[in-house]
């Protein structure tokens, strides 16, 4: 099948992109409002794009009426946010944080999660998350119904058990993040395997 994205309606483009660009990691994004109210929202249009500088990217869609979501408003105003990564233990709470609560609702507390103070930014991180990244806004690329947010990671918190004793390599049997597939379908990274380059190709010793 062929799909002309220059003619395809946005909802159909979304369906195809989200179904095939998968699984996608999930960012539970914490921000803080002008009056100090914490906010948290899950986002699967998210990934890391650079280590030098350390840049993560969020794609934040507008509300159906075209207005900006609270997370985006808070990021523009304060220039700060925290990305907490999610595993199976907090999966339900992560999804529930995506309910369209009023702006004065603290989603973290309401869903049974807890706040932990950040070291370099005002928004708190989710205490139960296996890892969290404190970010400062680097750039916003605006489109009519979506903003692409580039954030620079300035501090990272990792649960001790997720790393080896030297703090260098992740323990895959411990850190098993969940990711989004399509619609309400998710996957957990509990079946990992090692895959390396074919030695004969790597050394140029292939036939022919």
Quick structural summary:
The chain has 208 residues and is an alpha+beta fold.
Describe this structure in words.
The protein is an alpha+beta fold. 17% of the residues lie in helices and 34% in strands. The protein contains 5 helices and 12 strands. A 7-stranded antiparallel sheet has the order 3-2-6-9-10-5-4, covered by helices on one side. Strands 1-11-12 form a 3-stranded antiparallel sheet, with no helix packed on it. A two-stranded antiparallel ribbon has the order 7-8. A hairpin with a 2-residue loop joins strand 4 (46-51) and strand 5. The longest helix has 11 residues, at 10-20. The protein starts with 9 loop residues before the first helix and ends in a 5-residue tail after the last helix.
User: What is the oligomer described by this structure?
Assistant: single chain
Please state the CA-atom Rg, rounded to the nearest Å: 19 Å
Mean pLDDT across all amino acids: 94
Number of helices: 5
Helix content: 10-25%
Distance between the termini: 36 Å
Instruction: Give start-end ranges of low-pLDDT stretches.
Output: none
Order of helices and strands: HEEEEEHEHHEEEEEEH
User: Within the largest sheet, what's the order of strands?
Assistant: 3-2-6-9-10-5-4
The chain-level structural class is alpha+beta
């Amino acid at each position: 099948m062929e799909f002309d994205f220059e003619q395809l309606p946005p909802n159909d483009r979304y369906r195809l992109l989200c179904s095939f660009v998968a699984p996608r990691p999930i960012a539970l994004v914490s921000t803080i409002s002008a009056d100090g109210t914490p906010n948290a929202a899950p986002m699967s249009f998210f990934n890391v794009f650079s280590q030098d500088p350390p840049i993560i990217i969020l794609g934040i869609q507008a509300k159906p009426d075209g207005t900006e979501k609270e997370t985006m408003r808070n990021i523009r105003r304060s220039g700060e946010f925290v990305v907490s990564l999610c595993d199976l233990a907090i999966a339900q709470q992560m999804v529930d944080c995506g309910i369209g609560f009023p702006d004065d609702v603290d989603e973290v507390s309401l869903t049974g999660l807890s706040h932990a103070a950040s070291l370099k930014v005002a928004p708190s991180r989710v205490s139960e998350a296996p890892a969290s990244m404190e970010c400062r806004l680097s750039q916003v690329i605006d489109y009519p119904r979506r903003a692409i947010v580039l954030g620079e990671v300035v501090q990272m918190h990792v649960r001790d058990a997720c790393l080896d004793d030297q703090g260098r390599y992740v323990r895959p049997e411990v850190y098993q993040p969940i990711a989004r597939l399509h619609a309400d379908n998710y996957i957990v990274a509990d079946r990992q395997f090692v895959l390396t380059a074919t030695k004969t190709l790597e050394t140029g010793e292939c036939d022919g």
